[in-house]
Amino acid sequence: MNAIQVQDLRKTFKVQKNREGLKGAFADLFKREYSEVTAVKDISFSIPQGEICGYIGENGAGKSTTIKMLTGILVPTSGSLSVGGYIPYEEREKFVRNIGVVFGQRSQLWWDIGVIESFQLLRKVYRVPELDFKKRLDELVERLELQDLLNRPVRKLSLGQRMRCELVAALLHNPSILFLDEPTIGLDIVVKSEIRQFLKDMNREHGTTILLTTHDLQDIEALCSRVIMLDDGRIIYDGGLEDLKQRWGTGREVQFQFGAPTKLEQLMQWTEEMPVTWTSENDLGAKVWIPLELNVSDVLGRVVGQADITDIKIIETNTDDIVRSIYQSGSAEKPEEKILALKDEKEVIHV
């Protein structure tokens, strides 16, 4: 069963054109000119119940606009969508009881009152029975270690403390679908790690569907098996994160530290039949670049039995570099794949 179903979704905004100078500003008072900007361009995807899916793209790619349509804040220009069996902008009251939302740069907590009072107000908004609320609150407070924060005003919380409270606020009514927009923005590495682990536990124990938008690709790697990549309002990739690495990754680097001097010429001789590249700054350390089509274990087997090795470090494909390359090209197809696709097109046309 799909928790989220999107078909040919489009959102267009009318943007006022501001003419220059005093004369232009005066003219705008009587006759305004508008242009149309399409933020989301006929996208389609589905997310099964219980999946954690990353939704990524550069600034202005259309991520936040999509999330706002999925949460019922914006009405689509065209296309269809269903979230938890509801059409968000038509069945608003029933729909919101089924979702939780965390916006990293906006708060759903009341600034000047205690955290527990905000939670009590949200209980009434979502009409959660008192017993269910207490049981759920106790579980979440214990998991996120908020016992000492409940009576503090929100304005006196650190950013990390506030984000943990925001997660509780979004999950008090036990939603089946959770939307996260930059949930770890500005947080230190310890708090990020705690939040990631908490989200994984919630997904595993309660089957919560999570749609995550973020610029921190470590969030994606830690949580998501699938990623949807958006560029200029269009989906350019929808698939597994590992598949993306395999398609765009160029190889892996293995770094060796030796207990005794080992010449670069000797290392190259041991792997002379393999398409690898060795580099070395001194006789006690060396790096080898291994293409994806070659197993790392095969290369290690040639070296480990013959050299005095004190340390080995394997550096995998850098996801940040991969995503940056895709954004720069505007497509998730590698250049050689584009060439083959064009060649196939020409052959079909020729026939």
UniProtKB/TrEMBL annotation:
<dbReference type="InterPro" id="IPR050763">
    <property type="entry name" value="ABC_transporter_ATP-binding"/>
</dbReference>
<dbReference type="InterPro" id="IPR027417">
    <property type="entry name" value="P-loop_NTPase"/>
</dbReference>
<dbReference type="InterPro" id="IPR003593">
    <property type="entry name" value="AAA+_ATPase"/>
</dbReference>
<dbReference type="Pfam" id="PF00005">
    <property type="entry name" value="ABC_tran"/>
</dbReference>
<dbReference type="GO" id="GO:0005524">
    <property type="term" value="F:ATP binding"/>
</dbReference>
<keyword id="KW-0547">Nucleotide-binding</keyword>
<dbReference type="InterPro" id="IPR003439">
    <property type="entry name" value="ABC_transporter-like_ATP-bd"/>
</dbReference>
<protein>
    <submittedName>
        <fullName>Daunorubicin ABC transporter ATP-binding protein</fullName>
    </submittedName>
</protein>
<keyword id="KW-0813">Transport</keyword>
<keyword id="KW-0067">ATP-binding</keyword>
<feature type="domain" description="ABC transporter">
    <location>
        <begin position="24"/>
        <end position="257"/>
    </location>
</feature>
